[in-house]
Specification:
The chain has 409 residues and is an all-beta fold. Helices cover 1% and strands 42% of the residues. The radius of gyration is 20 Å and the shape is globular.
Length: 409
């Protein structure tokens, strides 16, 4: 069997695509490889795990996980509960470009940035048709706005506009090492890490309308209570921008709150902001109304961006083997769920939290109701943050140059 660009898919890669069947059980699934060749069945009869994988190597043996590729999940739809829902199972596997990252969906089409080859793969899931768009060096996850998808090309110091219908490519110079933007107040807000600036762009004209100078490296923002919130590394600040008073012609001054050391992207849970501090091994909880710090909760080593479910915050600990679960109302730590070495930020559906585990080459399935490890889905080497698209999880695997579907219904 061969992967994209005619490259063979090794036996190690095929083995890693097998389902590690947990409590979800059931018959062996069929994995369909899509990409211009005949679909092939792969046996997935891996034994049932009785415990999560072994702990990681010692610090001297371990390779640090780069933090540049983590992407905070945006708000996505969850599945309505239904008694007839089938157990999750593996679906299609698409060969894509080198080192694929978290995809962006626009209807039935999704766009996969390929960090290792400066392209975005466009996949129509209804027809299985694929095309490739060159966007610039080291593209990251994009956002949709004004009839286009916008991808930061980190090493080209640009934000690249790709027309959804005509695939025209228009680069906009923003500065070095741009992060994933968001759309807020009808403008694109582009964090430019190494430039220590937030660039504001009018998507209708592709014009830069403001550059907000900062004293640290900004990360992807989120919106909460009519405001834009984002962290800056180096100075350990959480910033607030009032969107109600935003005027492109008036310079923005941000409110600032000092949080934990080396903060990662904030999330909202229980009406509060939750900011992981990677060098402090804590989660800082902030009240958005008072701008005060409510708590600083110890978690595991080097916490990543949390996943939120009703009443719960799930914190993957990058330099450990656990996901720390916190009650978002009482702020109590409820559990440390063992999942395997180097867990990263994931996504949630109604019943489960899904966490990519880098060193074990699978996505861990965690039960929301009893905070337990159910099992894992082998999806290729070095899985990255999944995206929930049209009732399925799509998981990029950087080491396999593939994106794999986990069907949820």
């Amino acid at each position: 069997m061969r992967g994209h660009a005619g490259r063979p898919l090794s036996s190690a890669v095929l083995a890693s695509m097998a389902l590690i069947v947990g409590a979800c059980g059931g018959s062996s699934p069929t994995v369909e490889f899509v990409g211009g060749e005949t679909p092939t069945a792969v046996d997935a009869s891996t034994p049932v795990p009785t415990a999560p994988p072994p702990p990681p190597p010692t610090a001297a043996e371990s390779t640090p996980t780069p933090d540049d590729d983590a992407v905070a999940p945006t708000a996505e739809p969850t599945l309505a509960p239904t008694p007839e829902r089938e157990a999750p199972r593996l679906g299609r596997v698409y060969p894509v470009g080198a080192e694929p990252h978290r995809p962006l969906a626009t209807g039935p089409i999704f766009w996969v940035p390929n960090i290792g080859e400066d392209t975005v793969t466009r996949i129509d899931t209804t027809t299985a048709e694929q095309s490739t768009v060159t966007v610039g060096r080291r593209p990251d996850t994009g956002v949709e706005a004004d009839g286009a998808v916008w991808f930061p090309a980190r090493d080209d110091e640009t934000l690249v506009r790709v027309g959804i219908d005509d695939l025209t490519v228009t680069p906009i110079a923003v500065g070095p090492n741009a992060d994933t933007p968001i759309l807020a107040a009808d403008h694109l807000w582009v964090p430019v890490r190494d430039g220590q600036v937030m660039v504001v762009i009018d998507p209708a004209t592709s014009a830069i309308v403001q550059r907000i100078e900062l004293k640290g490296r900004p990360l992807t923002p989120l919106m909460l209570d009519g405001a834009l919130w984002f962290v800056t590394r180096d100075d350990d600040m959480l910033h607030r921008v009032d969107l109600g008073s935003f005027d492109p012609g008036v310079p923005v001054v941000t409110e600032q709150i000092r949080v934990g050391r080396d903060p990662d992207r904030a999330v909202e849970a229980g009406g509060r902001l939750w900011v992981p501090a990677r060098r402090g091994d804590v989660i800082t909880v902030v009240d958005p109304e008072t701008r005060g710090i409510v708590a600083s909760i110890p978690v595991g080593a080097r916490p990543d961006t949390p996943v939120v479910t009703p009443g719960r915050v799930w914190v993957p600990n990058l330099d450990g083997t656990t996901v720390t679960v916190i009650d978002s109302e009482t702020l109590d730590v409820l559990a440390d769920v063992e999942v395997g070495s180097e867990p990263r930020t994931g996504v949630a559906t109604d019943d489960f939290v899904w966490i990519p585990v880098l060193s074990n080459d699978f996505v861990a399935q965690l039960d929301i109701s009893d905070l337990s490890f159910v099992g894992g889905f082998g999806v290729g080497l070095s899985p990255d943050t999944p995206a929930l698209i049209d009732g399925a999880l799509w998981v990029p695997a950087k080491g396999s140059d593939t994106i794999t579907e986990i069907m949820l219904r």
